[in-house]
């Protein structure tokens, strides 16, 4: 790369870091990339660090030593996110979203990259220092959220299937009881998809009683994995007895009144301490 002016170098350096979250980057890489002195690079990184913190983009950590460098850790300020999530809540309370059986239509939000990426950043921010190895979800609607979350954590995401696929090789399968329907269902995970003794985060789009998340937790025991936590886009409060606890939710669904065509929602557990 040709030698850049400082303003251009700062812009390029920030983009370089943002595109490589949780990756330790040695200072020598920047020194060679921009043909600049180490002292100049250090000054640039301090400016970027202050800018990121002021803008709520996350943290820039410095690791000292010969094998050290800098690492960008994406994060969000939940107080700044509150208004954005309130807009989501208002949109989801539209009576036209009520489906037969009292279900809530959310697929349009889960197909918007800007919305999905923002949710993924919020989820990843809660576990940015957890040392995760994987993000896991069950097909199909949770896949975009899991992908976005894994992108900000810079770890692979794994999909639990509801049926076995020949292309995935041998699998581990379990039966679990759906918390909402009380039906016995099956989920499976390819043996090659995850290393043993991994630390994982579960992500899903919707939770009623938590049967699916409980099933994933049981399945992960077969891989001797540690579950660091679980995040869901919307958590229903209709079921008093939950099969899992301490789930981070972005929004809570309080009530769907089919007769009067009203939907009541509130902010999720992520905002409880804000």
From TrEMBL:
Keywords annotated in UniProt: DNA-binding, Transcription, Transcription regulation
Keyword Heme: no
Entry superkingdom: Bacteria
SUPFAM superfamilies: PRTase-like, Winged helix' DNA-binding domain
InterPro entries given in the database record: PRTase-like, PRTase_dom, Pur/Pyrimidine_PRTase, PuR_N, PurR_Bsub, WH-like_DNA-bd_sf, WH_DNA-bd_sf
Domain Bacterial purine repressor N-terminal: 5-74
MF terms (GO), sorted A to Z: DNA binding
Keyword RNA-binding assigned: no
Residue ranges occupied by any Phosphoribosyltransferase domain in the UniProt entry: 108-258
GO biological process, one term: negative regulation of purine nucleobase metabolic process
A Pfam family: PuR_N
Quaternary state and interactors: Homodimer.
NCBIfam families xref list: purR_Bsub
Family: Belongs to the purine/pyrimidine phosphoribosyltransferase family. PurR subfamily.
Protein name (Swiss-Prot/TrEMBL): Pur operon repressor
Organism of provenance: Caldalkalibacillus thermarum (strain TA2.A1)
Higher taxonomy: Bacteria, Bacillati, Bacillota, Bacilli, Bacillales
Gene: purR
């Amino acid at each position: 790369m040709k030698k850049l002016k400082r303003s251009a170098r700062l812009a390029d350096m920030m983009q370089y870091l943002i595109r490589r979250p949780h990756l330790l980057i040695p200072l020598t890489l920047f020194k060679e990339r921009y043909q600049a002195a180490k002292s100049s690079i250090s000054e640039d990184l301090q400016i970027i660090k202050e800018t990121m913190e002021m803008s709520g983009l996350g943290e820039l950590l410095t690791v000292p030593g010969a094998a050290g460098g800098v690492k960008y850790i994406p994060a969000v300020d939940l107080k700044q996110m509150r208004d954005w999530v309130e807009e989501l809540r208002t949109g989801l309370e539209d009576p036209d979203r009520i489906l037969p059986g009292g279900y809530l239509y959310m697929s349009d939000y889960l197909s918007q990259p800007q919305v999905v990426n923002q949710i993924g950043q919020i989820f990843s921010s809660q576990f940015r220092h957890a040392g995760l190895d994987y993000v896991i979800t069950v097909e199909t609607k949770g896949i975009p959220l899991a992908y976005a979350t894994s992108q900000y954590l810079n770890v692979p995401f794994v999909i639990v299937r509801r049926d076995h696929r020949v292309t995935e090789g041998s699998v581990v399968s379990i039966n679990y009881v759906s918390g909402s329907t009380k039906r016995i269902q099956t989920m499976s995970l390819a043996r090659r998809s995850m290393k043993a003794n991994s630390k994982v985060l579960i992500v899903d789009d919707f939770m009623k009683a938590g049967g699916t998340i409980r099933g994933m937790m049981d399945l992960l025991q077969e891989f001797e994995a540690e579950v660091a936590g679980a995040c869901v886009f919307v958590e229903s409060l209709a079921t008093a007895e939950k099969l899992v606890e301490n789930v981070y939710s972005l929004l809570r669904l309080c009530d769907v009144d089919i007769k009067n065509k009203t939907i009541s929602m509130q902010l999720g557990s992520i905002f409880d301490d804000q």
